[in-house]
Design brief:
Distance between the termini: 92 Å
CATH topology of the largest domain: Cyclophilin
CATH superfamily of the largest domain: Cyclophilin-like
Strand order of the largest sheet: 3-13-1-2-10-7-8-5-4
EC number: 5.2.1.8
Keywords: Isomerase, Rotamase
CATH class of the largest domain: Mainly Beta
Enzyme class: isomerase
Pfam families: Pro_isomerase (PF00160)
Catalytic activity: [protein]-peptidylproline (omega=180) = [protein]-peptidylproline (omega=0)
Structural class: alpha+beta
Length: 249
């Protein structure tokens, strides 16, 4: 065996040994990362599905969606026509349960159901709180993923089931809009004290709150001046997700 051949074999053996060690190290790292990643993912999942507070407190609100969802068409009113639905709005302050009236407001309820199923409101803040003293109405306004009050789902539709007497009782669930009657979309408001809205076109009433008005009351009691602006609730309240279920047809 020549000296050059011996050196070559020795080098090959050294390289093979190094590669074997490297494979062991990489395999160990992959195993550690897999186990660690699994733990982190589980922790994140636990945080995301953490039960909402029931003791009158609020969890830290999530960051607003980076890119709110947009849609091309208004959902067909046939989705909710002549039916009643229950919507459970999970917020960082607790659950708010609503009854949706598809018999009186089929287009509005159909839109609400569709947006809820698509996750349109996930992590969206309630951006506006009004008081009778300063605004003449007592509502908590939600449903805009941008948190600015100007966001919409990409479509609009007209007013339905507006009260002829302009009265919006406590617990009423109604759609917010611009001066354009056909601008109903994703923003809605919850009335926390009897309100009269003298608008000739009116605002679509599509349901009522059946559980969780105490949450709205606590937010209202804190007043305005939140991080989203001077008209935002001082106590931040955000929609984490919305579940909908048909309860009658």
């Amino acid at each position: 065996m020549s000296p050059s051949t011996s050196n070559s074999n020795s080098s090959k053996a050294t390289i093979a040994a190094v590669l074997a060690v490297a494979v062991v190290v990489v395999a160990t790292l992959v195993l550690v990362q897999t186990l660690g990643g699994g733990g982190d993912e589980q922790q994140g999942a636990t945080t995301a599905t953490e039960a909402p507070p029931t003791d009158g407190t609020c969890n830290e609100p999530p960051a607003l969606p980076e890119k709110p969802l947009q849609f091309d068409e208004v959902p067909p009113k046939s989705l909710a026509e002549n039916t009643t639905w229950t919507a459970t709005v999970h917020t960082n302050c607790g659950d708010i349960v609503m009854e949706l009236d598809g018999k009186k407001a089929p287009q509005t309820v159909s839109s609400f159901i569709s947006l809820a199923r698509e996750g349109y409101w996930d992590d969206s803040a309630c951006h506006r709180l009004t008081t009778a003293e300063t605004d003449g109405l007592s509502v908590l306004q939600c449903g805009d993923p941008t948190g600015t009050g100007s966001g919409n789902p990409g479509y609009g539709y007209g007013v339905e089931n507006a009260p002829k007497d302009y009265q919006y009782p406590r617990g009423t669930l109604a759609m917010a809009r611009t001066q354009d009657p056909n601008s109903n979309g994703g923003q809605f408001f919850i009335v926390y004290d009897q309100t009269e809205l003298q608008d000739p076109t009116g605002y679509s009433i599509f349901g009522k709150v059946t559980e969780g008005m105490d949450i709205v009351d606590r937010v209202a009691e804190q007043g305005i001046g939140g991080t989203l602006g001077p008209a935002a609730p001082k106590q931040p309240i955000s929609i984490l997700s919305v579940d909908v279920e048909k309860t009658a047809s």
